[in-house]
Amino acid sequence: MTPQAVTVEVPATSANMGPGFDCLGIALDIWNTITIEAGEAGFEICGYGADDLPRDSTNMALASVERVFEKVGCPMPPLFVRCRNEIPTARGLGSSSAALVGGLMAGNELSGRHLSPDDLLQMAAEIEGHPDNVTPALFGGMRIAVYSEGRVVSARVPVPDSLSAVLYVPSVPMPTEQARGLLGSEVSRADAVFNIGRSALLVSAMATGDLTRLRLATEDRLHQPARQTIFFPMKNIIRAALDAGALGAFLSGAGSTVLALASEKEFTIGYEMADAAAKSGLDGDVRITRPTARGARVAG
């Protein structure tokens, strides 16, 4: 017997992690909660996006539920969607991936659990267009995600328990489409080698716990320099985080959040990031959290 209502909790994610463009991501201990209930159609959204997220079939959570029903060949009943959003929208913290993954998982529960976790991953990556957010959103932790013959293959990277994440979340958004549109279709061999080496070093640093390598391992030449052109304070915020004791720092996803990895001095790092932003004329909030090994889950 299929349930008439389901609640799914989905973590925030930070993609790229500096050099791992479109193939590395990590789940963070900030959660969106999506409840889908069969019955009268409607929407209730609170938290981030309450004033501007759509309340119709274009809403990502509902659209993803519909994709599952279409895939398994079941008619979808009228649904009431409740979203409690703790993940800031359009800030590079995976809010759209959280809605997408939450909708897919809820749809799978409501339609009879015909799809495997891997099926959901493939659907999520197809809808999102790249796998670096949806993979850690589904499975938690730090994840490598690559394509092979049109399918996503993922692998877990161990993350030291001592690691925390200091987020500077600007008051201004950076729409993903705009940020991706800045990137050229070709890169130099030198820049490719630069990022390949640092991506490998980043995975090694996490897996071995040698966090002294993170400063070097989170550097990037493939996407952050281009995004710097429309987000001038980024470089100053990253430098302030590192000078204050952060182990590494990078633009979270397509931005505008800057994420600093730390094992101590989190409040000092956050203060210095905010101060650097203010000196560049940027307002925002500091949020301190941790990576989470837990991915999306059905509550209850």
Description:
By secondary structure, the chain is an alpha+beta fold. The chain has 2 domains: 5-158 and 292-298, 2-Layer Sandwich (Ribosomal Protein S5, domain 2); 164-289, Alpha-Beta Plaits. The protein contains 10 helices and 11 strands. Helix 9 runs antiparallel to helix 10 (266-279). The longest helix has 20 residues, at 189-208. The radius of gyration is 19 Å and the shape is globular.
Number of domains: 2
Query: Helix fraction?
Result: 25-40%
Strand element count: 11
Q: Counting H and I runs of at least 4 residues, what is the number of helices?
A: 10
Largest sheet: 7 strands, mixed
- The CATH class designation of the largest domain is Alpha Beta
Query: What pattern of helices and strands is seen along the backbone?
Result: EEEHEHHHEEEHHHHHEEHEE
Radius of gyration: 19 Å
Going by CATH, the architecture of the largest domain would be 2-Layer Sandwich
Given as residue ranges, the uncertain stretches (5+ residues, pLDDT < 50) are none
Mean pLDDT: 94
By helix and strand content, what is the structural category?
Answer: alpha+beta
User: What proportion strand?
Assistant: 25-35%
Shape from CA axes? globular
State the end-to-end CA separation: 17 Å
Write down the CATH topology of the largest domain. Ribosomal Protein S5, domain 2
Please outline what is shown here.
The chain is an alpha+beta fold and 300 residues long. The protein has helices at 60-72, 95-110, 117-128, 134-139, 176-181, 189-208, 214-217, 224-228, 233-243, 266-279; strands at 5-15, 24-38, 42-47, 79-85, 142-148, 151-157, 164-170, 248-251, 258-262, 284-289, 297-298. Helix content is 36%, strand content 26%.
